[in-house]
Design goal:
This protein is an alpha/beta fold and 323 residues long. The protein is built from ten helices and twelve strands. It is 39% helix and 15% strand. Helix 4 packs parallel to helix 5 and helix 6 packs across helix 10. The longest helix is centred in the N-terminal third of the chain and has 20 residues. The protein is globular.
Length: 323
């Protein structure tokens, strides 16, 4: 297998305090990479501040919307590989305030890509899009040929991110690849309005978990450690395969309704006496969405390392230690 020697590679990561970012950085540090992160806010509970990472990465304080800052950071830190994970990812937040979501997700992406275009040292850029970029489609599962047609603020922002990244390859041959993943879950997720951490916290507190939809929404749930490993695997393959400009779905290809997911968490935590409350109040949600990862298997020889059950087990154990 072709693998990249990460030792002393200069890597730039946006979204470092987020769920995937901390796991990605942990793996890269262990591989010997030199990490520089862009940080807008200090999230005190983020896994990024774990003792495993302390004093092992550089911090550039600022926002993706600050183009001059990005250009300076990439140049002064002599960045070769970029992982762009930063985004406003909460659907409800996007619905309440679409402008801030568009600013961070869309403007932030084209600023970063333009800064990369002006830096001749850049060899690989991994852009985190989302399965939400596909919007609501009749044909399932979604593959990489499915049209991008988001309709609500968050979905549209990810469709735009995806298309902008493709533009920078098609027009300027920038070494970009795009990831489209399902709903991440795992240790470090502090957004308790998401269904998995919210359900686990409710059960640990002896409360009934709340399902904001009608419980029938079908989603693709992807363990965060597999996501981080997939991003790294893709970056490595960008050095050896003619895949620049392409998008790849990453998924364990297991789809669950929200109600089935909540019941699975309840059963795994052995709290069968607790039943969820279904409010049916969620709006602007895609009904059914899950991915085919056949292209990633075939082209990249990528496969997930964790089963859904194993990922859920590790996730529950992490929350037990912090709640």
């Amino acid at each position: 297998m072709d693998t990249l020697n990460w030792k002393d590679k200069n890597v730039f990561v946006t979204g470092a305090t987020g769920l995937v970012g901390s796991h990605l950085i942990e793996i890269l540090i262990n591989k010997g990479a030199n990490i520089t992160v862009l940080m807008r806010d200090t999230i005190s509970q983020s896994r990024l501040w774990d003792s495993l990472f302390k004093n092992k990465f550089n911090i550039v304080h600022g926002e993706l919307e600050n183009y001059a800052l990005l250009e300076r950071a990439l140049n002064e830190h002599e960045i070769e590989i970029v992982f762009h994970l930063a985004a406003q990812t909460i659907v409800g937040t996007a619905n309440r305030n679409p402008l801030s979501t568009f600013e961070s997700n869309i403007r932030g992406t084209y600023h970063l890509l333009e800064a990369c275009r002006r830096n001749t040292l850049i060899k690989a850029i991994v852009i985190a899009s989302s399965d939400k970029a596909y919007g609501d489609q009749l044909k399932l599962p979604y593959d990489e040929n499915t049209p991008l047609k988001g309709t609500h603020p968050y979905d549209v922002s990810k469709s735009c991110v995806d298309l902008i990244a493709q533009t920078y390859y098609n027009t300027y041959k920038l070494p970009v690849c795009i990831t489209r993943c399902g709903n991440f879950f795992g240790p470090g997720d502090l957004n308790f309005n998401r269904i998995i951490p919210g359900t686990i916290r409710s059960i640990l507190n002896g409360e009934r978990p709340i399902i904001r939809s009608d419980g029938t929404l079908i989603r693709d749930y992807f363990y965060v450690k597999d996501g981080a490993l997939a991003y790294i695997h893709l970056a490595e393959k960008m050095y050896t395969l003619p895949i620049h400009g392409e998008a790849f779905n990453f998924s364990n290809e297991i789809q669950l309704t929200v109600l089935d997911l909540v019941n699975q968490i309840i059963n795994q935590m052995r709290q069968q006496h607790i039943t969820p409350i279904i409010t049916g109040t969620a709006t602007n949600e895609i009904k059914h969405q899950y991915l085919s990862a056949e292209k990633a298997h075939r082209v990249l020889n990528w496969y997930p390392k964790y089963s859904f059950d194993k990922g859920l087990e590790e996730t529950i154990e992490w929350y037990k230690n912090i709640i």
